[in-house]
Amino acid sequence: MEIWVNPACSKCRSAVSMLDEAGAGYTVRRYLDDPPTAEELSRVLDRLGLQPWDIARLGEAVAKELDLRSWPKEPSERARWIEALVKYPKLIQRPIITADDGTTVVARTPEAVRSVLN
């Protein structure tokens, strides 16, 4: 299992604590220091069943600078969105957990974290 975290994020710290309490084996990826490639992000999005705009943090300063809210949210724009998220990983919603069985969640709630532990 791998969890993408920003150590400054309370949701990330909570998810890691839940994994620890459950005795789960996992690898931490500090995705701001080790950003995903476009291919990795695309695979994670496919596992999530989401599009890049679904996991974009639109409240971040860089999102406002890029005016992401105005970007079209359509399949033809997917690569453009992924490119932005890879270039500016702070835009990626967190934490993201990818379980060994392929289950992948944006683990912002305790329920989402528990879903990869079952």
Automatic annotation (TrEMBL):
PROSITE patterns the UniProt entry points to: ARSC
Taxonomy, superkingdom: Bacteria
PANTHER family, per database record: ARSENATE REDUCTASE
Family of this protein: Belongs to the ArsC family.
Protein known as: Arsenate reductase family protein
Organism (species): Amycolatopsis acididurans
